[in-house]
Amino acid sequence: MPYEIKDLWPDDFSKRKVKQLGCNRCPISCRRLLKVEQGDGEILHDGPEYECIYALGANCGIYQADSVVQLDYLCSEYGLDAISTGVTLSFMMECYEKGLVNRNDLDGIDLAFGSAPQAGEIIKKIARREGIGDLLSRGTYRTSLKIGGGSSSFAMAVKGLELPGYDPRGMKAMALLYATADRGGCHVRGSTLRAELLGLSQKFERFSYEGKVDLAVQLQREYALLNSFSICLFANFALSFKEYLEAVNQVFSCSWTLEELKEAGARIWNMTRLFNCREGFSRKDDILPGRLFYEPLTEGASKGEVVDLQKFRQMLDEYYLVQGWDQDGIPRQSMLEMLEIDEFL
C-alpha cells in the first residue's frame, strides 16, 4: 500500500460522519452526511461515495479526506459529475507534469498532482467555462485532441466518457465492457466485480481472457434491464432475476417467463447499439485508451498486467459474433428480426 493513501481509508471519512443516509427503508444506506472544516467555517456534504474518492482523491494525488470532501462538494454545488471531473483534472495534471501545458495555459494555476486548492479553482473554472475551464468542460477526450503531443494515449476515456475506478488491466472482462458500452467507459452498463473479484455467483480468473465474452454479453443485457427497472444496483448483489421477474409480473399484471425477460434486455441493448450506429459509432470506437495496452501496472495485486491488444481484438471479434453483430459492430438483420426490432435497422 502506498504510504500516502493512509488518509483515504474508511475510518478517515467515518471520523467526519454526522449520520448515515439512505433511500426510504433501505437496509444498505450507502450515503453519509459528512462535516469538514473549510476556511473559517464548515461544510455539510452528502458524500463523497467511493468513485468520487477515487477520481478526486488518489487519482489526482490528493490523499487528504477533507480535501476530497471539499472537491466533491464543489462538484455537487456546480452540478458536475465527480468521476468525469476528477479524471479530467488528473489528465491535465499529467499533461502539466509532462510539459504539454504550462502555467500560462492554465491561467497561472500550478496544477501539479496533489494540489487540492488549485484543483478546486479549476473546478470553478470548468463550471463557469472560464479560461482553461472552457476547454476542460468538454471532457478529457476532446481536451486531448486540442493539446496533442500524444496525450490521447493517456486520456482515460472511452467514447468520450471518463473511466471509473476499476482498472481493466486487472479484470479482463471489464476491458471488454468498457470498450463496448453504449455510452462509453461506464461501470453501470455492466460490472464484473462480483464475478472477477468476489467469485459471485460464478468464479472467474480475473487475468484470464477465457469465458469473458459470454460474461460481458450477459452482464450488459442484465444491466440494461436493471437500469430500465430504475432499481439500485447494490440490490443486485442480493436479488436474482427470478425475484425481478416476479416483481415485473406483479406490477404490470403480465406473465413473462425468465427467457422473455432476458430477451427484453437483449432488445434494449441492441436498440442502444442501433442508435450509436446511426450516430456514426462503429468498431473503431470500441477501444480502450492506449496506455492500458502497453503500460503495465507497477504495484499491487495486478502488478505487471496490461490488456493484451491481440487478445482484446480476438475478444471483440467473438463479442460481435455472440451479439449477432457484423465485424464492424452493426447488428445483423437476423438478430433484429429475432428480437422483432428489424424495422429500426
Total individual domains: 2
Secondary-structure-based class equals: mainly alpha
Largest sheet, spatial ordering of strands: 1-2-3
CATH fold topology of the largest domain: Aldehyde Ferredoxin Oxidoreductase Protein, subunit A, domain 3
Mean pLDDT: 93
How much β-strand is present in the residues? Answer: 5-15%
Name the helicity range.
Answer: 40-55%
CATH A-level architecture of the largest domain:
Orthogonal Bundle
Instruction: Encode the helix/strand succession as letters.
Output: HEEEHHHHHHEEHHHHHHHH
**Assembly of the depicted chains:** single chain
Radius of gyration: 21 Å
* Annotated CATH homologous superfamily of the largest domain: Aldehyde Ferredoxin Oxidoreductase Protein, subunit A, domain 3
The number of helical runs is 15
What would the principal axes of the Cα set say about the shape? globular
Tell how many strands the DSSP assignment holds.
5
Cα-to-Cα separation, first versus last residue: 51 Å
Major sheet characteristics: 3 strands, antiparallel
Q: Low-confidence runs (pLDDT<50, min 5 residues)?
A: none
